[in-house]
Amino acid sequence: AYAGSIVHAAPLGSQEPINLEAASSDFDYRNNTLLFRRVRITQGPLRVEAQEASATGLNFENSEWNLKGDVRITVPDGKLASSDARVAFRDNEIVSALIRGTPASFEQRLKESRQLAQGEAATIDYNVREGTVRLSGDAWLTDGQNVIRGTTLVYDIGKQRVVANPGGSEPGGVRITINPKQQEDAPAPPQGREP
User: Fold this and answer.
1) Distances in Å between the alpha carbon of 78 and those of 23, 43, 46, 135, 149?
2) What is the CA radius of gyration of the chain?
């Protein structure tokens, strides 16, 4: 059960312990490498899961972890998913995740409308400290009704704001599909009568 959306993007702080669970591990002390299978890394509300994770040393002060297979990154009410990811730790906290997939996906429940914002791209760069998600490569993002497409979409999680193709100058580089709103309170047509 991986519910949701991303709503919290502030740094989690190094006071939170980092917990690692795995089905199996392989420590190569001579080469200082680690390999975990069916791994889950948690820090407070942030969780990273994958079929396989590798790193050089069990160090979260300054390291990068490579994840493969059914990668899921969740925060309170949120998720990113892909086939591969690289997660960076600095000063004992998760600071970024670069995910790649066919495609990589992102979700956030919008606060006001309660609609689900969803996006996909070839790569998604989630910057925890800045609270941004950069979707690159045939990217699209929807608010549950309208769809924005572009080469690069930058979504600010806290502000719920999207910038498409920043600095772009080519006409047609951004495509938006606006779907008419459905009237929820419209009366149903009478039943049983021919027009």
Assistant:
1) 24, 15, 10, 16, 22
2) 20
Q: Are 66 and 53 contacting, i.e. CB atoms less than 8 angstroms apart?
A: yes
Cβ burial, residue 43 (10 Å; 0-12/13-18/19+): buried
Cα(123)–Cα(135) distance, integer angstroms = 6
Backbone φ, ψ for residue 101 (5° rounding): -170, 180
Stated as kind and residue range, the H or E segment containing 93 is strand 93-109
Give the alpha-carbon dihedral of 165, 172, 119, 131, to 10 degrees: 20
pLDDT classification of 11: cutoffs 50, 70, 90 = very low
Are 38 and 51 in contact by the 8 Å Cβ rule? The answer is yes
pLDDT tens for each residue of 145-163: 889 999 999 988 878 788 8
Using a CB cutoff of 8 Å and minimum separation of 24, what contacts does 160-164 make? 160/108, 160/110, 160/111, 160/117
This prediction's pTM: 0.75
Q: Strand 93-109 vs strand 161-164: parallel, antiparallel, or unpaired?
A: unpaired
pLDDT for the residue 67: 96
Is residue 106 within 8 A of residue 128, CB to CB? The reply is no
